[in-house]
Amino acid sequence: MVPDLQEYDEEQVRLMEEMCIVINENDKRIGAESKKTCHVMENINNGLLHRAFSVFLFDSQNRLLLQQRASEKITFPDMWTNTCCSHPLNTADELVEKEQLGARTAAQRKLEHELGIKPEQVPLDQFQYLTRIHYLAPSDGMWGEHEIDYIFMIKADVDLDVSPNEVRDVKYVTPDELRAMFADTSVPMTPWFKLICNTFLFKWWANIDSLESQKDENTIHRLGFD
């Protein structure tokens, strides 16, 4: 069943037409489907899997920039998450796999789209690729995520011009402040952010200025599959 999107925000419905990169469990490209098709739980339960990225941006004080997803978002609205999470598209410049260039290009594009961060403040070669994470997470009965997620960290002092249709709120946090947010059950957090934090983030954060030793570029970590 294809969901009727009439009840949703017009701009978010438009974005659901974007074409995501469909992959197999080894991150090999096998086709393309719309963002809408890729996020329908019925399709996910039948194995549909797409490529994604997550950016963790730190300022010069080593604080992590978080965003709260806008209420207009179709999946995971109003939830706090890492700096930026989205998908490389099935376009020539975002399909490039060498040195994760397609995913880096997508990350730079979405940082500007969601948070107003200019590309020159986040150069492609400054994104540090840590690893890939494969996870599945329902949003509600209709929608969900099933992704292999490229994890990027970048350290930069940036100027924000937030798009209210994408982002409800932003904040910079220290590790202790983030732990306090996780301990507060009234603060909604995206499932992929929880998985990454519980498994990797705090170790990476403690080594933010020496990330080469933390990289695991060839592994696809399967998280949350019990």
From TrEMBL:
Q: Does the keyword Isomerase apply?
A: yes
Organism phylogeny: Eukaryota, Fungi, Fungi incertae sedis, Mucoromycota, Mucoromycotina
NCBIfam families on file: IPP_isom_1 (TIGR02150), PRK03759.1 (NF002995)
Q: Please cite one Gene Ontology biological process associated with this protein.
A: isopentenyl diphosphate biosynthetic process
One Pfam family, please name it.
NUDIX
Q: Which UniProt keywords apply?
A: Isomerase, Isoprene biosynthesis, Lipid biosynthesis, Lipid metabolism, Magnesium, Metal-binding, Steroid biosynthesis
**Organism source for this protein?**
Absidia glauca (Pin mould)
**Which reactions are catalysed by this chain?**
isopentenyl diphosphate = dimethylallyl diphosphate
> What class does this enzyme belong to in the EC scheme?
isomerase
Please identify the protein, giving its name as recorded. isopentenyl-diphosphate Delta-isomerase
Pathway participation: Isoprenoid biosynthesis; dimethylallyl diphosphate biosynthesis; dimethylallyl diphosphate from isopentenyl diphosphate: step 1/1
Cofactor dependence is on: Mg(2+)
- InterPro entries in the record, alphabetically? IsopentenylPP_isomerase_typ1 (IPR011876), NUDIX_hydrolase-like_dom_sf (IPR015797), NUDIX_hydrolase_dom (IPR000086)
- Gene Ontology cellular component list: cytoplasm
Note the Gene3D superfamilies from the entry. Nucleoside Triphosphate Pyrophosphohydrolase
Domain Nudix hydrolase, by residue range, is 48-195
Q: Name one GO molecular function term.
A: isopentenyl-diphosphate delta-isomerase activity
- Asked whether the keyword Transport is assigned, the reply is no
Q: What's the family? A: Belongs to the IPP isomerase type 1 family.
| Enzyme Commission identifier(s) | 5.3.3.2
